[in-house]
Amino acid sequence: MLARLAEADRRSRAQESLVPATMVKEEDWQGLAFVLDGVKVISAMNEIRELLPYPESVTRVPGTKSWMLGLANIRGELLPIVDLQQFIGGGAVMVNDQSRVLVIRNRGASTGLLVSSVLGMRHLPVSKQIADAHFDGSLGRYVYDVFGLDDGVWPVFSMAALANDEHFMAAAS
Question: Is the four-CA dihedral 35, 39, 44, 46 of positive or negative sign?
């Protein structure tokens, strides 16, 4: 078995020079971009556990705030589903084929955050960070960094700041 692994490693290393170098540099910051109340934002990849389509069945929980959409059974685990856009003060997300649920984990519990669309993974050059940037509005309390790129400003949305917000933790009406 070890001989097979060693042979696979040798063949892999021999092919390494044939694989084109990626455009990603070590100094790039990686995140998942999504739309939140019409604003393109990005969150660190290590803050998002999973990306799901909107579940077929979400059971409303009586006595919760309107942004707490309910619970969904995802592979045997009950997952609270929150309309993130509505939570931050925007209108409710209209669920369609582009809507996605970003699953975050905090304090051992998972939560699903409904967003209107996901734009995909982005690699942002650290050199494009805007020093001491301040982001106003309802997003401001969750934005800890901002990148200035040719296609606009990209606020970095902190899932950890959201999960630790006392208002987010208080879903009961």
Answer: negative
- How many structural domains comprise the chain? 1
For residue 42, give every residue at least 6 positions away whose Cβ sits within 8 Å of its Cβ, in sequence order, or none. Answer: 31, 32, 33, 34, 122, 124, 147, 154, 155, 156, 157
Residue range of the domain that includes 140 = 29-169
Query: How far apart are the C-alpha atoms of 10 and 94, rounded to whole Å?
Result: 52
**Residue range 110-150, pLDDT digits in tens:** 999 999 999 999 999 999 999 888 878 888 899 999 999 88
Beta strands 77-83 and 109-115 are parallel
CATH of the domain at 110: 2.40.50.180
pTM value is 0.82
Report the pLDDT averaged over residues 139-167: 91
- Does residue 69 sit within a domain? yes
pLDDT tens by residue, 38-94: 899 999 999 999 999 999 999 999 999 999 999 999 999 999 999 999 999 999 999
Strands 77-83 and 68-74: antiparallel
Q: Is residue 4 assigned to a domain? A: no
Sign of CA dihedral 137, 122, 111, 71: positive
Q: Quick check: is 153 in a domain?
A: yes
Domain membership of residue 160 (yes or no) is yes
